[in-house]
């Protein structure tokens, strides 16, 4: 084997983990990595590509040549000489589908639903709308080729009436008859055009509206079913699926489905119909000319598709680059106090500027590439005109073609070719919709093992509250290799207050979650009144349990509504009673709107103690038989803790109460204290008995006593914050006065958070900034004046190209009145050449116009962003 120190694999490993780590943790033998901290074991001739994710390291190993193996251990990784992927799992696993996605071989097609499965939620009325929309899309797509038939016949009528060879030597009466006939023909053609226009108006409206309406109705069902499916899933499912990703799927992926099954389908059918109809018309009217134009048509179609693809790709890259710069700005502004405190403004300005430079470069490349494609498209169009009229003249002179037939064939085939190029966005949207639907529909179809919406299960008439854990083993789905409970046995009698204590990770909170049946044990039983909780109806079980967690979650609505979430049919009297039991009634009545006070996002308008008491009231309003308190006071300061603890003591009277406690001083009065260690109960008894035993509980009490005497820096900060923060009455007074603390809250907000209290100053119409003048913006762009001059000149030339084209087009039709074939051939060649010249000019002018204005615009955008960010950091 090769010396690993010189190998590419070692270089990647060094880059990833650092040279020091690599040399101190990797063991080598005979050119092989035998071991690197237990994760790696590969050949030295392997190219190792590391892909680091949040919770695992994935190694993709490609063997370039077969060689002699040194051991069986080495063979198992490199036996077949093919590409392998090996994952090194760490704690905190990713969901299985994500893990598999990382292991997908390059080039493997993304998973999609079938085209018909995409419409699985369409009703009969939706199907009818889609069928009618498709029929009208076919009619709409056929309109242009049919209009070209009329255009060709109309052109022949004009040429025939202007033939000087016929009209120069005949009587005036006959000429007048021809003009009258021409007028009748033109009137008839005008009626045809009007009929097609009216039909297109009706067909386009029905096509778009019917497909959009059908898609909207299906998307409504998909959103409802997707959200309902998420709400049905057990907690273990959420452990292995990112909640933020689910929200993104609800917004972005469902929007992709909406875009893919909406009017894009109608546009796709319309474009395909135009393509087919255009070529049919061309072949029927003149198959020879059609075959010649076919040589150019694929290039035209591909250029249109390429232009759309390139523009889309560069737009995505540009948005990603600006998003990266925006993330820097968001990070800096969110922590503006820290940035200013350390004098880091200049450093952050340079970092932001660097990201803007990257975005600008991508934007300029986008302008160059897109406008080359645009110029090439116009060059091909004018070249097609030149080819069509040059070869069309030959057919007119040697065959029975007319100028009208040439125009009909040419425009029908040209329109058909362009329409097939325009299908790319619709096909891409449909493919994206199928890919997005695969995940969405899988989640909808996923049947949870613990279904809170299920009506099955036993519903006892009365629950006493006797709880028992019988030899329970459990591990979380996200960490199947880490066993949390290892044969737990615990009995809790009705009406008892039982405290669960122990070090972090010993299984206390897990025990509480098993009571709520968030999870099912791997082995053993959890019973209520002797009944296995797996046989009980899930919703019924949770309705008889009240829960107060360490971090209370309040929703951005009124206090009354937050409490009403505890029980749907609760009355106002029940709410008031629950708040009195939770020691929350007095402070609520001091608020301006009392129970109708909006608490803000996550209860931002309330203090920690107030939020906790409202959470207690929400738990008590359902009059639960079992009360679960999971470190309900550990996040509070001393003053708030005493108020909340009094409320909890009152709440647990007459109920089976399970308390998970960090501060042992709060559970001294518990009927039973169960001490957890290593996933089992090692000691149980009341406070006095456990102290007498001088076991684990005795050690925990002594440790907390020492910590109380010598406060840590964290405790010091908590103490300091208590002294400097507002007390309960002062906080309530400030809340009533309104906006005193808003500026502080706003400056300390986390990214993405919003101030729930409306700012009258910002929302006032008088505060709206007037639009900046165009000249002021141009002054910021004055250094790019050469680009504007060049772009303006190119724009003028481009503007003149169409009138020039019209003149040449009219002249070339007029030459077909010529009877001399040599003159006709000579003039046809001249005008065909002029079409080609127009194409060459348009290629350069369109490119330079788009490039110059695009570059100037990118520079201005970067300058404005940079100036705005710099001005913010100067405040």
Automatic annotation (TrEMBL):
Membrane topology: Multi-pass membrane protein
Top-level taxon of the source organism: Eukaryota
Start-end of Basic residues biased regions: 738-749
Stretches for region Disordered: 78-109, 711-768
SMART domains hit by this protein: AAA (SM00382)
Domain (ABC transmembrane type-1) ranges: 131-432, 789-875
GO cellular component, one term: mitochondrial inner membrane
Keywords linked to the UniProt accession: ATP-binding, Glycoprotein, Membrane, Nucleotide-binding, Phosphoprotein, Repeat, Translocase, Transmembrane, Transmembrane helix, Transport
Biased composition (Polar residues): 712-724
Alphabetical list of PROSITE patterns matching this protein: ABC_TM1F, ABC_TRANSPORTER_1, ABC_TRANSPORTER_2
Location in the cell: Membrane
TM ranges: 128-151, 190-215, 265-284, 290-308, 368-391, 785-810, 830-853
Chain ranges of the ABC transporter domain: 467-703
Keyword Manganese: no
Presence of keyword S-adenosyl-L-methionine: no
GO biological process terms, semicolon-separated: oligopeptide export from mitochondrion
GO molecular function: ABC-type oligopeptide transporter activity; ATP binding; ATP hydrolysis activity
Family: Belongs to the ABC transporter superfamily. ABCB family. Multidrug resistance exporter (TC 3.A.1.201) subfamily.
Alphabetized PANTHER family for the sequence: ATP-BINDING CASSETTE SUBFAMILY B MEMBER 1, ATP-DEPENDENT PERMEASE MDL1, MITOCHONDRIAL
The protein's name in its UniProt record: MDR1 protein
Gene field: Abcb1_0
């Amino acid at each position: 084997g090769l010396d690993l120190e010189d190998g590419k694999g070692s270089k990647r490993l060094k880059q990833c983990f650092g040279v020091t780590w690599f040399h101190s943790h990797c063991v080598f033998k005979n050119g092989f990595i035998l071991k690197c901290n237990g994760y790696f074991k590969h050949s030295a001739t392997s190219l190792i590509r590391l892909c680091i994710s949040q919770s695992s390291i994935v190694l993709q190993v490609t063997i370039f040549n077969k060689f002699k193996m040194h051991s069986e251990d080495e063979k198992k990784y490199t036996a077949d000489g093919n590409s392998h992927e090996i994952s090194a799992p760490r704690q905190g696993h990713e969901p299985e589908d994500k893990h598999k996605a990382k292991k997908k071989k390059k080039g493997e097609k993304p998973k999609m639903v079938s085209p018909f499965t995409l419409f699985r939620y369409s009703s009969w009325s939706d199907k009818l709308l889609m069928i009618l929309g498709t029929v009208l899309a076919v009619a709409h797509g056929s309109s242009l080729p049919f209009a070209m038939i009329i255009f060709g016949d109309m052109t022949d009528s004009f040429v025939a009436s202007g033939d000087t060879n016929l009209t120069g030597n005949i009587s005036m009466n006959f000429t007048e008859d021809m003009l009258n006939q021409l007028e009748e023909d033109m009137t008839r053609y005008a009626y045809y055009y009007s009929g097609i226009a009216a039909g297109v108006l009706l067909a386009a409206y029905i096509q778009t509206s019917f497909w959009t309406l059908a898609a909207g109705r299906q998307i409504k069902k998909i959103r409802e079913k997707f959200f309902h499916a998420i709400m049905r899933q057990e907690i273990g499912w959420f452990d292995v699926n990112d909640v933020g990703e689910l929200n993104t799927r609800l917004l972005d992926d469902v929007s992709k489905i909406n875009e893919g099954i909406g009017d894009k389908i109608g546009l796709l059918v319309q474009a395909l119909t135009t393509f087919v109809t255009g070529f049919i018309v061309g072949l029927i009217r003149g198959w020879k000319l059609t075959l010649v134009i076919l040589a150019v048509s694929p290039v035209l179609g591909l250029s249109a598709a390429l232009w759309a693809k390139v523009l889309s790709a560069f737009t995505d890259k540009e948005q990603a680059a600006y998003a990266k710069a925006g993330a820097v700005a968001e990070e800096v502004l969110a922590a503006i106090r820290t940035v200013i405190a350390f004098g880091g403004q200049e450093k952050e300005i340079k970092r932001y500027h660097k990201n803007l430079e990257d975005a600008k470069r991508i934007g300029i490349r986008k302008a160059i590439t897109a406008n080359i494609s645009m110029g090439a498209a116009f060059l091909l169009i004018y070249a097609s005109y030149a080819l069509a009229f040059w070869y069309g003249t030959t057919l007119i002179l040697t065959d029975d073609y007319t100028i009208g037939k040439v125009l009909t064939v040419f425009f029908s085939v040209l329109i058909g070719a362009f329409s097939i190029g325009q299908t790319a966005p619709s096909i891409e949207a449909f493919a994206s919709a199928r890919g997005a639907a695969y995940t969405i529909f899988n989640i909808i179809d996923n049947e949870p093992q613990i279904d809170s919406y299920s009506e099955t299960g036993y519903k006892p008439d009365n629950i006493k509250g006797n709880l028992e854990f019988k030899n329970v083993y459990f591990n979380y789905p996200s960490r199947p290799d880490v066993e949390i409970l290892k044969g737990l046995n615990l009995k809790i009698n009705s009406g008892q207050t039982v405290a669960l204590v122990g070090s972090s990770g010993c299984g206390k909170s897990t025990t509480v979650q098993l009571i709520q049946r968030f999870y099912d044990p791997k082995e053993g039983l959890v019973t209520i009144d002797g009944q296995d909780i797996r046989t009980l109806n899930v919703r019924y079980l949770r309705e008889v349990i009240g829960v107060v967690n360490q971090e209370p979650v309040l929703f951005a609505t009124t206090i009354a509504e937050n409490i009403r979430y505890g029980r749907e049919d609760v009355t106002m009297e029940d709410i008031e009673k629950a708040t009195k039991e939770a020691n929350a009634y007095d402070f609520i009545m001091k608020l301006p709107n009392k129970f109708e006070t909006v608490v803000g996002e996550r209860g931002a308008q309330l203090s920690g103690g107030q939020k906790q008491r409202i959470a207690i009231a929400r738990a008590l309003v359902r009059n639960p038989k079992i009360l679960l308190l999971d470190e309900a006071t550990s996040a509070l300061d001393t003053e708030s803790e005493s108020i909340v603890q009094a409320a909890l003591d009152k709440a647990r009277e007459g109920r089976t109460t399970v308390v998970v406690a960090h501060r042992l001083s709060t559970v001294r009065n518990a009927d039973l204290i169960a001490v957890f260690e290593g996933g089992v109960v090692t000691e149980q008894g009341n406070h006095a008995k456990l102290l007498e035993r001088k076991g684990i509980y005795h050690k925990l009490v002594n440790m907390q006593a020492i910590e109380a005497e010598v406060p840590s820096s964290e405790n010091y900060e908590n103490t300091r914050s208590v002294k400097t923060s507002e007390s309960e009455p002062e906080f309530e007074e400030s809340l009533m006065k309104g906006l005193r603390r808003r500026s502080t809250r706003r400056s300390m907000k986390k990214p993405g958070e919003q101030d729930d209290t409306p700012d009258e100053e910002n929302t006032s119409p008088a505060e709206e900034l007037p639009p900046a003048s165009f000249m002021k913006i141009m002054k910021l762009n004055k250094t790019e004046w050469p680009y504007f001059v060049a772009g303006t000149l190119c724009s003028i030339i481009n503007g003149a190209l169409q009138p020039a084209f019209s003149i040449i087009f009219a002249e070339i039709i007029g030459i077909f009145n010529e009877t001399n074939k040599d003159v006709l051939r000579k003039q046809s060649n001249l005008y065909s050449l002029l079409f080609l010249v127009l194409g060459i000019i348009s290629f350069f002018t369109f490119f330079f116009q788009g490039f110059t204005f695009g570059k100037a615009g990118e520079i201005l955008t970067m300058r404005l962003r940079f100036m705005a960010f710099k001005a913010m950091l100067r405040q």
